[in-house]
Input
Amino acid sequence: MRGTRTDARRRRHFRVRKTVHGTQSRPRLAVFRSNKYIYAQVIDDDSGRTIAAASSRESAVKGSTLTVGTATEVGKLVGARAQDAGVSKVVFDRGGFTFHGRIEALAEAARESGLEF
Output
C-alpha cells in the first residue's frame, strides 16, 4: 500500500532529524509549510524550548497569501527575533520539504537578517 505525500514528507523529516540537532550554542531553525501558512522556529533541542518563532499568521505578515514574498517576510522576522535573543548561528531543518521556492526564500531572508547557517 502506498502512502500519501504527507507520509513521504514525514519520512524524509525523520531521516533529516536523525542528524540535525539543535544545541544552545547552535539551535535548529525548523520550517513548516502548509497550503495556507508558513512557520519558522528557532529551537534548542537540548533544553526543549523555542527561542524565537515567526509565522505568516501574525499581524505583521497576515492578510497576504502564501507566496515567496510572504516566506521572505517570515524569514526576516524570525532572523531578527533570533538576533534579539542572542542567536547568530543556526542549523537549518527544512522539515522534509525540498529546499526550493518558499523554503529557500525563507532561508535566504534569514541569512540576510544576520543568521549564519
Q: What stands out?
A: Residues 5-112 form a domain with the Nucleotidyltransferase; domain 5 fold (CATH 3.30.420.100). DSSP finds three helices and four strands in the chain. The beta strands are 28-33, 38-44, 49-55, 91-93. Residues 68-84 form the longest helix (17 residues).
